[in-house]
Amino acid sequence: MRAAVLHEIGQDKLEVLDDIEAVGFGPGKVRIRVRATGLCHSDVSAMNGVLPQPAPFVPGHEGAGEILDVGDGVTGVEQGDRVVICWLPACGACPACKRGQTELCLAGFMNAGTPNFKRPGGDVFGFAGTGTFTEEVVVGAGCAVPIPDDVPFEIAALIGCGVTTGLGAAINTADVEAGSSVVVIGCGGVGISAIQGARLRGASQIVAVDPVASRREAALRFGATEAVAPDALNDAKQRITAGEGFDYVFEVVGKSATARTAYETTRRGGTLCIVGAGAMDDFLQLNMFELFFDEKRILPSMYGGGDVVRSYERAISLWRSGRIDLEGLITHRVKLAGINDALAQMRSGEALRTCIEI
């Protein structure tokens, strides 16, 4: 079967091969025919080494498809079911799951060290224990979450990561209050979803910040009340808040420099929500006096900060009722053979989300 493979960390292009085999099928596992997958910035971060991932590997973790086969002991899904692929399944038994913090379950991360594929040259891993830039993938049954028949695969794929992460950051983690002021720094698919979440919660002012003009224009369509380039953020802070700062600031880039800007843009007593996934050697510097004196809440948000399956269901319900726009997030579509075009679109900032149709 075909899959897009990164041979070595640091390479900037993928090779689409046709000699890949999905492996690991057996008890507790399911085989999925991938129909659509989104390109998330985390895939690029894994490719360049910002996020740890053994190589060679098949990127992709934001996917949807249909069940081809189920292993012994699998319940809840059966052959032919349409599913969204969850890259962070909850085991239900670890301390985090028992506390109700299923987004902190490490079971899914443990899968990243087990090869999902093989080819004549040896083992091939799947990013985040999945690897959706492929025609088929074998994953644990908990990674296959059933979706209703009326949800298109491309919409389900977005819900599998970016939409759930952005919406959840605003709704679950930050718990944005009605009438509040919000800034979102970084307006790709996740940032736009955070904007939609803040709008749903009734924020009165939502300022989108991004260096790419087309993304700023898109943010206005999705609910931002104002969109500015990074060098105009301080002016917006002065105009809108008289220099005090905003109630909620979302950092959706994953870099210490933008996180520091986000901290300085947050009012005293306000909330800074860290959504972007950054590198282990990129340190955010804060002094002990400002931490004490400013009393700003710093809230990291992992995968939307809530129960993933419930978050999927909520996103589908909101999409069905027209409360959120998911179709509009898909600005580009390519086939698997065009995966490197999709990477170029993301790196340039041209795309909000590129849907890879498989």
Describe this structure in words.
By secondary structure, this protein is an alpha/beta fold. The protein contains twelve helices and 19 strands. The strands form four sheets. Strands 4, 6, 7, 10, 11, 18 and 19 form a seven-stranded mixed β-sheet that branches. Strands 14-13-12-15-16-17 form a six-stranded parallel β-sheet, with helices on both faces. The protein has a four-stranded mixed β-sheet with strand order 3-8-9-5, with no helix packed on it. The chain is globular and about 60 Å long.
Q: Which structural traits does this protein have?
A:
globular; seven-stranded mixed sheet; single chain
What's this, in brief?
It is built from twelve helices and 19 strands.
Instruction: Count the E strands.
Output: 19
Mean pLDDT: 96
- β content, as a range? 25-35%
Oligomeric category: single chain
Class per helix and strand makeup: alpha/beta
Please report the number of helical segments: 12
> Gap between N and C termini, in Å?
11 Å
Low-confidence stretches: none
Supply Rg. 20 Å
How would a crystallographer describe the biggest sheet? 7 strands, mixed
Q: Give the helix level as a range of percent.
A: 25-40%
General shape: globular
